[in-house]
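Hi,

Apologies if this is the wrong queue. I'm a grad student, and the batch job for Putative cysteine ligase BshC from Oceanobacillus neutriphilus produced an output file that my downstream script rejects. I'm not sure whether the problem is my script or the file. Here is the sequence I used:
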Amino acid sequence: MQINPLTLPAANKLAADYKNEADNITKLFDYHPYKDFHKRLLDVSERDFNRDELTNVLHKLNKEWGAPEETLKQIDRLNDKQSTVVIGGQQAGLLTGPIYTINKIISILQLAKQQEEALGTPVIPVFWIAGEDHDFEEINHIHCPKKDGDFKKLKFRTRDTGAGKKSVSELELDKQELEKWIAAVFEELPETAHTKDICSLIQEVQNQAANYIDFFARLIFVLFENQGIVLVDSGNPAFRKLETDCFLELIQKQSQISNSVAETLKELERLEYPLAIDAEKSDGNLFYHDDIQGRILLKATENGSWIGKQQEISFSQQELMNIARNTPWKLSNNVVTRPIMQEYMFPTLAFIAGPGEIAYWAALKSGFHVMNLLMPPVVPRLSFTFLDASTKKILTKYHLGVKDVILNGTQATRKAYMETNGRQEIDQVTDGVIEKIKEAHLPIQNMADEMGDDIQALSKKNLTYLLEDIRFMNKRFHKEFEKKYSQELNEFNQLEQILHPHGGLQERIWNPLFLLNHYGMGIISQLTAFPLDMEKGHWVVE
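Support response: The file is valid. Your script probably expects a header line. Output copied below for reference.
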């Protein structure tokens, strides 16, 4: 296996300027993404963390998910007061969701290992599963490649009526439906030397899983066996109980946090950056979990009360604080306060971020400061493009560069190739014949114009019939042409599907299952073991 760096532009303008260290963006962060780890370690060492209770909860959760011994050892190391974590997170997608989830975990493991060697202190890799999120539509499907170069969206349908309202952690997992769905996914897989083993592993995980988070976590431990990744479900009641004091402070400082974030967003808008999040000064930045109505976003009113965004519920500030003290699992964070809660809970050396996360974290520095916290270094995650031998052969055949296809696809190249080989001539010939027929038919039309409306209409219909016959021949010529060059068209479609799916990066559409089926389970451990420079960003795996 060969792994080589490839420079690609960032996915959005803000992330690009952040990587290029533009002054107007770097001032919105507390640390440089790659150079301030020693400084950050000193800053974190000055804070106290509830390490004993945190490690107890992490042990319980990870053991329930069948964590390997290496993960449990990493959790124990959190009791060392010099230890820190590299952390990142994502929702619990079915079969992990798109490849970028795996890329994020690889990034966490890589940076944790690199910084432990550089700093000489324990650095634990932690993945934050956003189990409190209620966007089930975002995690309930995968895209399966089709032979025509497109993708089929295989969607898992749950009978739980709370889907879309309740947190994913709270949803019931219909194991019979999951079994059917996984079988349907494997029907889309081409048979390889690895298919049966992968199917057996996933079936074993599926049989052991009690809910969606469980299914996700157990699969991660299968994929990253003995890599030491520590998982946490932010929707777990025991974990959320540890968040009580932070919830209380977030409630008390709601106005300051919301005002500061709203002001930063105004500054970003003034600088003409697309805004990654919406924020208003009345935002409560917390959700309340109602047993009947599900997860409800809260807003703060001028008279000090807290109401649902659609006015479904209402609490006084004291009532909400009592909820935080007595039943904190009924509260959860939104996009603004989740990073703050993460910083409160873990001694964070660095946060691993995708381009979208970098864009919205740019608005949060002042919110951290309101809570007397510093925003951790925000490190762009690694990204990969997988290039198999067949795809590489096609690139060579048409003299195409992998970077150009990743960025631009093959539409323009395919069009130029087909026109060079005669497709353009089809239109030129038939268009020329059409113009000649129109010209030759003009005397008939002129004669008909002098003989009355009926014959005039008949002459126009006659011309239409003649032109339709030529256009029919044009379509048939194109059909025969495409049949003649079907192999070439299929090859261009293959390049588009693999390297530029749906107009973007491979990692956003492809599921890791299809890579595992091609390369085998060892691909994950190979990527994790390979020393990857975090600043390089994107890597091509051959």
